[in-house]
Amino acid sequence: MRPLSHSSISTYEQCPLKWKLHYIDKIPEEPKPYFTFGSVMHDVMEYFYVEKENGKIKGPRFSAPPVNELLAYYDSIWSSEGYESPEQEENYRQLGEKIIKEYHEQHARNFTMPIATEHYFIIDIDGVKVRGYIDRVDKLSPDSVRILDYKTTRDPFRIPYVKKDEQLALYQMAFEELHNKRVERLSLYHLRSNMDFSVGRRPERMIRALRKKILRVADAIEKEEFEPKKSNLCPYCDYQHLCPYFMDLYAEKTKEKISVEDMVEEYAQISLEMSRLKKRRDGLSAILREYAEEKGMLTIYGKRSALTVSSYERVDFDDGVRPLLESAGLWTQVSKLDSKRLKELVDGGAISQELMEQIERYRTIKKITTLRRRKMKDEEMDVS
Ligand code: SF4
Q: What's the CA angle centered on 51, arms 49 and 55, to 5 degrees?
C-alpha cells in the first residue's frame, strides 16, 4: 500500500469514496485558490529561513533576507491557478504581500535559524508507512524542539483546537521516532494574523489513539472499504458527478430522465400529502375517541359514514420475566430470534463450523429498499 499522510488519512475519514477517487483512481480535483495561495506562502516562509536558487536550496540563512528580496521571491513564484476571477487573484496577492511584510517586521530582528524547514519524514507503524513534511522545526534546548506548521486559513485558532490537532500529533510521533530529541512544543502559526498558537507536547495516550486510528484506516483501505459518507462537506466535493448520492443531478437530461424527474416530483408530492392527511386523521381520531368515551357510545355517525369504536388490551412483558421463564424451562418457547445478534456470533467466529453449516440452511438475506423523501425547508420527512 502507498504510504499514508495526514491529509490522506483525514480524506479517508471524511469520505472513503472520495479517498478512492483521489488516491486510487487519481481523478484530479479542481484547483482551489486557497491551495494555490497556501502553497506559495509556504514556499515564501521557507525562503525566509533558507537560501534558494532556481527552486533548489543552497543552504541555511544566518540572518533574514531584506523584505524586498522576500517580496521579489513571492512575485517570482506566484501562480494564478485556481482563482475564479482576476479580482479574487489580486485580493489574494495583496493579502500575501501584507502577510510577508508583517512577518518580516515581526521576525527579522530576532532571526533564529531553525533546525529544519520542510522536513521530510517517513515512518513505519506496524507495517503501515506514513509520510509527511514538517514546515519548521525550532531548537528549544540541546535535547528538545518545537514543531511548527504554517496555516493560511481565514480565522485564527482556539487553543483547544490546537491541543487536538492530529497533524501536530503525527509530527511529534514521527520526529521523536526518527531523532533523539523530545518535542516539547507544538505550534500552528496563523499567517493572516501573524500569530503563533502554541501548546505543549501530546500525551502518550493521544499518540497511542492516533496510531490506532492510522492502523484502522489502513486496514479499511486494505479491505477496499470505499463507501461514500455523506456530510456537510459534500457541497465542496469535486466528485459529486461520480458519487451515488449526487450523480443523478449530473445525469444527461434525456427524455427518460425528464420523466424520472417528473415521477420524483409526483412521488414527493404524494408523500407530502399522505403525511399531511395522516396527521389530520390521527388528530380527528383522538378527538372522536374522546367524544365517544365521554358519551359512552360505541358507534358515532357522520352524514354518510359511521365509525365503530373498539378497544383491546395489548399485553407486554419486560425483561424481568426472563429468569422466571428460564427456570421453568419455558424461555425458548417465548423468546424471539434475534437475527442481528446471531449474525454477530456468526461473523465473530463464535459458532462451530458444524453448527454454522446447519444455521446457514435457515439463513435468508432480504434486501429492503426504501425511498426517503428529502427534507426541504419547513417540511416533514417521510419514508415508504
Ligand atoms: S459528495 Fe460527499 S459522499 Fe459523495 S464522494 Fe464527495 S464527500 Fe463523498
A: 115
CB of 230 shorter than 6 A to ligand 1: yes
Residue at 158 is within a domain: yes
Alpha-carbon distance of 201 to 221, in angstroms, equals 30
The Cα 50–Cα 54 span in angstroms is: 13
pLDDT interval class at 200 (50, 70, 90)? very high
Do the domain assignments include residue 253?
no
pTM confidence score: 0.72
Q: Give the count of domains, the chain.
A: 1
> Whose Cα sits closest to atom 7 in ligand 1?
234
Task: Count Cβ atoms below 10 Å from residue 48 Cβ, excluding itself.
Answer: 21
Report whether residue 240 contacts ligand 1, using a CB cutoff of 6 Å.
yes
Percent of the chain surpassing pLDDT 90 = 65
Helix (H, G, I), strand (E, B) or coil at 361: coil
Q: 214 lies in a domain? A: yes
Tell me the CA–centroid distance for residue 237 and ligand 1, in Å: 6
CA 13 – ligand 1 centroid, Å: 12
**CATH number reported for the structural domain that contains residue 175 in this entry:** 3.90.320
pLDDT digits (tens, 9 = 90+) for 236-265: 999 999 998 988 888 776 666 668 888 888
Determine if ligand 1 sits within 6 Å of the CB of residue 11: no
The answer to whether residue 150 is domain-embedded is yes
Instruction: Give the least confident one: 86-95, 116-125, 141-150, 331-340.
Output: 331-340
Q: Which atom of ligand 1 is nearest to the CA of 244?
A: 4
Helix (H, G, I), strand (E, B) or coil at 194: coil
| Percent helix, strand and coil across the chain, each to the nearest 5 | 50, 15, 35
Does the Cβ of 16 fall within 6 Å of ligand 1?
no
The answer, yes or no, to whether any atom of ligand 1 lies below 6 A from the CB of 23, is no
- 65 closest CA partner among 79, 49, 78: 49
Angle made by CA atoms 287, 291, 297, in degrees to the nearest 5? 135
